[in-house]
Structure to design on (734 residues):
């Protein structure tokens, strides 16, 4: 996917002016947050499970090569194949090669962010394949030719009226007078359209929430059941997953599963948690003839052992964006690439470069709500700050910001001079602001006064008044 | 706890120093009424957050060293701001990971540093204040104080001991106001969206006074309320707790309105 992260400010401005988007985003602000809070409150050991989950991933990342090799052995032992893909290009090529070899025409897909990251749909469509997204949200945005705006709710930026209009436009074969204003009617219609496609598919592609080293199993966590149909009905099942999805054993999976759905949707457990191990065995009632796992690196191994390793603990629950005031304000598309919100602000510069995605870690108030809810206890603000430090070191920060900072720091590092300067400034602003108590425009603070008044200072600094008081004079 | 009257160094914070010294005097009054002797080192300026959050490690470190030196020898260091206190307490030690000597000094300061209201309640055991303030008050939880220092119940406990105060909570009281230091000017439009939502909630609470413990957030919310023509008065919580509300509210003209 072509990034527009450089244009974050313009994207954000357009998003803020988009009334339909703003209406849709209201649901994010309340729905997810209340449900998560309730789910957490019902589980007294929730925070202990977060610690345990963090420790599991830390241990795995410290021994990643070991667990990946074990995982590969187990996949092979169960009759599957593992394809290592250092880059997005390698991953796309591997998928296309498999599709070509098995003479595929129709490919169904379960929801997968890795597929978005490697822009798989576009590559497959260009190769002449008929690609069908089967997750409802993904199905909708595929019709609209849009990227997802949220990692677990890809169409959360849309209102149901927009979806109704899209369905009427694309499902021309259905009677035009059918009722379609209720969410349940929309779901039923998508089901109806997709059913046939599941049966036609030659290849099914899913992501993975976990790869289990002990058993060679890939696991998907879903709510619609489309993932199961995607991976069991076609002749070939391809899993696309990134390296850090591996965990040592099933015990670890059950620990992390207990925080995953609660953090994501507030469910205790998602409707489906599906385990796949290898292709169909002779006495299995169903399953694919071939089972492939594509293990994507795409920059992740560079994060190991560095300032951003903790980010590899992420289980893609979406809680950080659900609780982010900036995400609420602008929605996911403004971030300009695959991963939005706080996790995207940390991950995206790692994957596409900070030159491209430099705005993202800066567009945060550091309110800390993301870290407070992250089930894997990822210190997201701290890592955004690391990006700011790298930008500052490389002189990527805007010149005006650097210049302002330099002047301020010059004074702040010289207390005597600073107190004189602040005294003058307080007096000047206090004098001019006295009558109204505030300024509605200030030439050096336009960013502030564009949207709000600037309060006038009281006129003397605390240090001046305190010094006078200490020398026996009245404070004012 | 040290014997007798503990010596407290007041970390004024750069915003209180320049914008609203009365908050500093309110802090002094509260600290003295909690049995402390208060001093104000001249060698302090700013805790360094503007540099720290802009990625400027060198200036951050220089300011941290300056602050560490300025507050040597005090039993406690108290700031009328959750975010500046958290900067010193939580972040200073991380600046010196490769310098054990300074790291020790930073950790020593971190261990002595407190945000004002939590210092009064949690360390000094203050359970009530003597204030004649009267009004319908709503309280905004500033992010750093809330999430880094756990300040939420303490200011409300003390406010509720003022007979004239009626506390009315806004929805999303623990959600960011959109200030974020330089964020509010760098991403002015996004900040505006966030502070608009915040001020909607403040207005809907029916309060006549908005309080919080951080001047940056207060200036942001006051500026937006006033731009929207709202009559709500905005003050630092210390002013109300110390019963020092004679000066006009934030952003109000010098003469008291009728
Ligand atoms: S960073 Fe944390 S909260 Fe955000 S998606 Fe990843 S695991 Fe979930």
């Amino acid at each position: 996917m072509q990034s527009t992260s450089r244009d974050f400010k313009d994207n954000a401005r357009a998003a803020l002016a988009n009334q339909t988007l703003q209406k849709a985003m209201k649901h994010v602000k309340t729905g997810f947050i209340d449900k998560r809070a309730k789910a957490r409150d019902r589980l007294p050991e929730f925070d202990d499970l977060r610690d345990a989950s963090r420790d599991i991933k830390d241990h795995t990342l410290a021994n990643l090569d070991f667990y990946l090799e074990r995982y590969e052995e187990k996949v092979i032992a169960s009759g599957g194949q593992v394809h290592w893909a250092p880059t997005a290009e390698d991953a796309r090529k591997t998928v296309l090669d498999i599709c070509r070899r098995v003479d595929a025409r129709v490919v169904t897909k379960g929801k997968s962010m890795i597929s978005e990251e490697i822009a798989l749909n576009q590559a497959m469509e260009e190769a002449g394949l008929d690609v069908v997204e089967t997750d409802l949200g993904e199905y909708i945005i595929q019709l609209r030719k849009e990227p997802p705006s949220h990692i677990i709710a890809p169409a959360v930026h849309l209102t149901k009226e927009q979806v109704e209009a899209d369905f009427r436009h694309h499902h021309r074969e259905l009677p035009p007078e059918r009722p379609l204003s209720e969410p349940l009617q929309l779901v039923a219609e998508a089901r109806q359209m997709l059913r046939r496609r599941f049966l036609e598919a030659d290849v099914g592609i899913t992501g993975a929430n976990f790869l289990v080293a002990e058993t060679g199993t890939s696991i998907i966590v879903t709510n619609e059941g489309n993932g199961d149909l995607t991976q069991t009905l076609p002749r070939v099942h391809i899993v696309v997953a990134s390296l850090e999805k591996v965990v040592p054993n099933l015990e670890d999976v059950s620990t992390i599963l207990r925080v995953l759905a609660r953090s994501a949707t507030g469910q205790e457990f998602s409707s489906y948690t599906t385990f796949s191990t290898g292709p169909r065995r002779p006495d299995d009632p169903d399953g694919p003839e071939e089972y492939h796992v594509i293990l994507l690196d795409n920059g992740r191994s560079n994060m190991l052992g560095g300032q951003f390793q903790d980010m590899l603990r992420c289980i893609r629950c979406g809680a950080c964006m659900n609780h982010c005031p900036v995400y609420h304000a602008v929605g996911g598309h403004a971030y300009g690439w695959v991963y939005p919100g706080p996790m995207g602000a940390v991950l995206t510069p790692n994957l596409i470069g900070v030159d491209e995605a430099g705005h993202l870690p800066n567009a945060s108030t550091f309110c800390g709500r993301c870290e407070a809810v992250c089930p894997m206890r990822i210190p997201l603000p701290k890592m955004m700050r690391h990006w700011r430090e790298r930008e500052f070191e490389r002189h990527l920060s805007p010149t005006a910001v650097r210049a302002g900072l330099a002047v301020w720091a010059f004074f702040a590092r010289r207390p005597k001079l600073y107190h004189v300067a602040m005294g003058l400034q307080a007096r000047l602003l206090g004098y001019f602001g006295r009558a109204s108590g505030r300024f509605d425009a200030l030439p050096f603070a336009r960013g502030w006064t564009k949207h709000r008044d600037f309060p006038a200072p009281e006129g003397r600094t605390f240090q001046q008044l305190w010094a006078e008081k200490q020398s026996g004079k009245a404070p004012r | 706890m040290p014997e007798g009257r503990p010596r407290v160094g007041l970390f004024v914070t750069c915003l209180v120093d320049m914008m609203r010294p009365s908050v500093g005097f309110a802090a002094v009054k509260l600290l003295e009424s909690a049995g402390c002797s208060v001093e104000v080192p001249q060698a302090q300026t700013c805790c360094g957050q503007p540099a720290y959050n802009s990625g400027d490690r060198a200036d951050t470190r220089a300011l941290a060293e300056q602050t560490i030196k300025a507050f040597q020898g005090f039993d406690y260091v108290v700031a009328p701001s959750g975010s500046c206190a958290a900067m010193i307490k939580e972040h200073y030690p991380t600046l010196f990971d490769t310098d054990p000597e300074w790291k020790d000094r930073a950790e020593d300061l971190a261990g002595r540093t407190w945000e004002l209201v939590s210092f009064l309640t949690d360390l000094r055991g203050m359970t009530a204040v003597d204030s004649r303030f009267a009004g319908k008050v709503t309280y905004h939880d500033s992010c750093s104080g809330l999430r880094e220092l756990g300040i939420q119940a303490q200011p409300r406990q003390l406010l509720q001991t003022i007979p004239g105060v009626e506390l009315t909570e806004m929805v999303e009281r623990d959600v960011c106001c959109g200030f974020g230091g330089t964020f509010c000017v760098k991403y002015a439009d996004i900040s505006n969206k966030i502070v608009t939502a915040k001020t909607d909630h403040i207005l809907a609470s029916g309060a006549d006074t908005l309080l919080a413990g951080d001047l940056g957030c207060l200036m942001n919310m006051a500026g937006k309320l006033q731009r929207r023509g709202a009559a709500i008065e905005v003050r630092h919580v210390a002013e109300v707790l110390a019963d020092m509300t004679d000066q006009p509210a934030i952003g109000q003209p010098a003469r008291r309105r009728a």
Residues 19-41 of chain A form the longest helix (23 residues).
